[in-house]
Amino acid sequence: MTNAGILGIGYAVPDGVLTNHDLERMVDTSDEWITTRTGIKERRIANGETTSDLAVLAAKKAIAHARIAPQDSDMVIVATITPDMAFPATACLVQDRLGCTRAGAFDLSAGCSGFVYALDVATHMVRSGPYRHVLVIGADTLSAITDFSDRSTCVLFGDGAGAAVVGQTEGRGVLATYLGADGGQGMSLYLPRERAEAASHKDGFIQMAGSDVFKFAVRIMGDAALEVLRRAAVAPEDVDLFVPHQANIRIIDAAAKRLGLDGRKIFVNVHKYGNTSAASIPIALAEAYEQGRLNKGDIVTLVGFGAGLTWGAAALEWEVPKA
Ligand code: COA
């Protein structure tokens, strides 16, 4: 069987920074509350940039890093819950702007698990033969659907995009994936309707039962990571880098504890970006690479959870030589 893995990676975040101190002036909150409950200190907020703008920036870097031409891409998948428009798919806008003229394009909606879902799809497309390179992008501008007068949600989210080129690899590449959903918990985290059609103030913004999502996340992050490692036949102690969805430092710490990982093996950037939804894992992976924390042959575990409620985990052998 053909092996498939990540050949190149990149990320993009908007320049605009919103700190906890800025939020103190907007809602009844404090830097101390946000830091102790979430680990977040600041987040990036788009100032006119759309999801496709950030996706294009991240994807250009991933394409250059993989040393392919845009025309070498056979498919563009954008994982997002904040598409520029209801249709066409954001992936089509991105495909056009990148010049991926030979590629098909579609969006995938799995909340913050979206990148791992798309990575799974891309891996299977490449393994099946006809698709040589699949561009996988996780991109979201949650600020567009965040109520900045609601302190229970507005402190959590930020904007960004991360991208990876998935293609045939000489090494083992993606070892295993594990996707799941519990639609019965879907109303724990949802957007009532498209913002443009919003009938009331509430309809245009994220609704969340924070403590329900928290309990789910703490359980599923550990469960999903252990299951994907079992499928990959990798012992938790053999994981070189754990790259979890960056939603809340307490959720990350609980998952790392379940795996018995020491702090040096866990990548964290939630303090800088908050929860960037589908972009969170690829931004973290790309930053880890940029910081020289990934060596060829390293075993990497990605695990995320999000709206759906969904979860997704992947175990892979890192292919790309050190940054
Ligand atoms: N600043 C100050 N107080 C706040 C606040 C804020 N930004 N947001 C909520 N509160 C208050 C609430 O009003 C509530 O007050 P009350 O006890 O007087 O009613 C209290 O803080 C809530 O405390 P608690 O329920 O103990 O908070 P928590 O420890 O569960 O933390 C979250 C809240 C949202 C940080 C946490 O539940 C969480 O991270 N959930 C997961 C969210 C998530 O990841 N969503 C995206 C999934 S992809």
What distinguishing features does this structure have?
four-stranded mixed β-sheet, 323 residues, 2 domains, five-stranded mixed β-sheet, Peroxisomal Thiolase, Chain A, domain 1, alpha/beta, binds coenzyme A, 24% strand
List the helices and strands and how they pair.
Layout: E1 4-12, E2 17-19, H1 20-24, H2 31-38, E3 42-44, H3 51-66, E4 75-79, H4 90-98, E5 104-108, H5 114-128, E6 133-141, H6 151-154, E7 159-168, E8 174-181, E9 189-190, E10 207-208, H7 210-232, E11 241-244, H8 249-259, H9 270-273, H10 280-290, E12 299-306, E13 310-317
Parallel strand pairs: 4-5, 4-6, 11-12
Antiparallel strand pairs: 1-7, 2-3, 6-7, 8-13, 9-10, 12-13
Helix pairs in contact: 3-4, 7-8
The structure holds coenzyme A.
Short structural summary:
The chain is an alpha/beta fold and 323 residues long. The chain has 10 helices and 13 strands. α3 crosses α4 and α7 runs parallel beside α8 (249-259).
Describe this structure in words.
It is globular and about 55 Å long. The protein is built from 10 helices and 13 strands. The protein has about 325 residues and is an alpha/beta fold. Helices cover about 35% and strands about 25% of the residues. The protein has helices at about 20-25, 30-40, 50-65, 90-100, 115-130, 150-155, 210-230, 250-260, 270-275, 280-290; strands spanning about 5-10, 15-20, 40-45, 75-80, 105-110, 135-140, 160-170, 175-180, 190, 205-210, 240-245, 300-305, 310-315. The strands form 4 sheets. It has a 5-stranded mixed β-sheet with strand order 1-7-6-4-5, sandwiched between helices. A 4-stranded mixed β-sheet has the order 8-13-12-11, with helices on both faces. Helix 7 (about 210-230) runs parallel beside helix 8. The chain folds into 2 domains: about 5-170, Thiolase/Chalcone synthase (Peroxisomal Thiolase, Chain A, domain 1, 3-Layer(aba) Sandwich), CATH 3.40.47.10; about 175-315, Thiolase/Chalcone synthase (Peroxisomal Thiolase, Chain A, domain 1). Bound molecules: coenzyme A. Coenzyme A binds near residues 38, 152, 211, 217 and 247. Coenzyme A binds near residues 38, 214, 247 and 275.
